[in-house]
C-alpha cells in the first residue's frame, strides 16, 4: 500500500481538479443562461421568415426558384454544427453518430457527400473519417454573429445552383432542456415550406423589382437563418452539456477524495498500531 | 382597430418592434414605399435606410435598418432586417475564405471516406464509457 505522504499528495491533486471542474460548471451555467436568451431572441425572425417563405410557396410566381424544386439526388451537401471545445459530455459524439447514420445510407448508394463544418470538433471528425470538407468556420464564440456563417453556407448554396449537390442537410443539436440535447437532421434545400392554411385561395404578390431577385434574397436568408439558429442553439447545448458533465466530474472528485481519505486514515492507524506493538514487543524483550 | 396594420420588425439576432401602426414607410430597392392597411400583397428587398411608422396623433417611430426584406399582407407588414452588411461580392469573398480554410485544414488528409471505420471507432468509444461507468459503480 502507498505511503501516507503519497496519498496526501494525491488527495490534494484531486482537490485541485475538483476546484477547476466546479468553476467550469459555474461558468457554463451562467453562459448557458445567456445562450438561451440569445436562442429565444432569434426565434421571432426564424418564425417570420418561415411564414413569409410559406406565403411565397402558396403564391404562384411565374418564376420557380431552383431551391424549391426537387431533383434526383446524386450528390448531397451536409452542414454539421459542433462545438469548438471539448469537455461537454457526449454532445459532439452523439451528433457525429447521427451524422454517420444519415450519410451512411447515402454512401451505400454511392452518393457523393460534401461537408461544411462549424466548430473545430466537426472539422476534426470529418477530416479523420476522410469526408470531403468544402468549407469550414470555427471559433465562432459564445455570441455567434450571422456574418460568420454567410460564407460557408454560400459555398454549398453555390454548388447547389451549379448542380454539384442535389440536396443540403443540416445536422445540429436541438436544445430540449438543460438535461437533454437531441441531435437532429433538417433538410435545408430543396426548401420544404410548411403549408399555410389561411391562404388557400389563388393570389400573388407584387414583386419588386422582379420575382427572381426577391426569391433569391429571401430563400438565401431563410436558409441562413435556419443555420444561424442551429449555431445559436448549439451554443446553448454546449453550455448545458458542459454544465452537466462538470457537475458529475465534481461529484466524482468528491467520491474519490472520500475514498482516498479513508485509505489514508487506515494507513495512519496501521502505522500507529505497528509502532505500539513494536514498543510493547521491545519492552517485553528487555 | 380597423384602420391600423400589424407591423413586425425583426432581425436575425432579435425582435426589434411588434405592434400596430397607421402607416409604414420603408426604403424598398425601387424607392421608398408607403404601406397603408389593406395594401395588396407585396414583397421586396430593402435598401439600407430608415423604416418609419406612423403611430397616430402625429407620433412617429424610426428604425434604422441595413437592408433586408419587406413582406406585405393585407393586415400584416413584416420587415426582415439584416444585421450583416450584404453585397454579392462580399458574400462571395466570405465563401472563398471559408473554402480556403477548409482546404488548408485538409492539406494533410490522405484517407478516403471510411464510414465503417468511423462507426467502429465510435462504438469503441461508447464501450469505453460504459466500462468506466461500470468500474465506478464497483
Can you describe what's shown?
In chain A, helix 4 packs across helix 5. In chain A, 60% of the residues lie in helices and 14% in strands. Chain A has helices at 4-58, 91-108, 120-128, 147-161, 211-285; strands at residues 75-81, 112-118, 132-137, 167-175, 181-189, 206-207. A 5-stranded mixed β-sheet of chain A has the order 3-2-1-4-5, with helices on both faces. With 286 residues, chain A is α/β, with parallel strands linked by helices. The two termini of chain A are 32 Å apart. With 138 residues, chain B is α+β, with helices and mostly antiparallel strands. Helices cover 30% and strands 45% of the residues of chain B. Chain B is built from 2 helices and 7 strands. Chain B is elongated, with a radius of gyration of 26 Å. The mean pLDDT of chain B is 82. The chains are: A alpha/beta (286), B alpha+beta (138). Chains A and B meet through helix 1, helix 2, strand 2, helix 3 and strand 3 of A and strand 1, strand 2, strand 5, strand 6 and helix 1 of B. Strand 6 of chain A pairs parallel with strand 5 (42-56) of chain B.
- Please give the number of β-strands of chain A: 6
CATH uppermost class of the largest domain in chain B: Mainly Beta
Mean pLDDT of chain A: 88
Main β sheet profile of chain A: 5 strands, mixed
Order of helices and strands of chain B: EEEEEEEHH
Question: Structural class of the secondary elements of chain A?
Answer: alpha/beta
Biggest sheet features of chain B: 7 strands, mixed
Strand content bin of chain B: 35-45%
The gross shape of chain A turns out to be: elongated
Mean pLDDT of chain B: 82
- Number of alpha- plus pi-helical segments of chain A: 5
Radius of gyration of chain A, CA atoms, in whole angstroms: 28 Å
Strand content of chain A: 5-15%
Unreliable residue runs of chain B: none
User: Could you give the distance between the termini of chain A?
Assistant: 32 Å
- Largest inter-chain interface? A-B, 61 and 55 residues
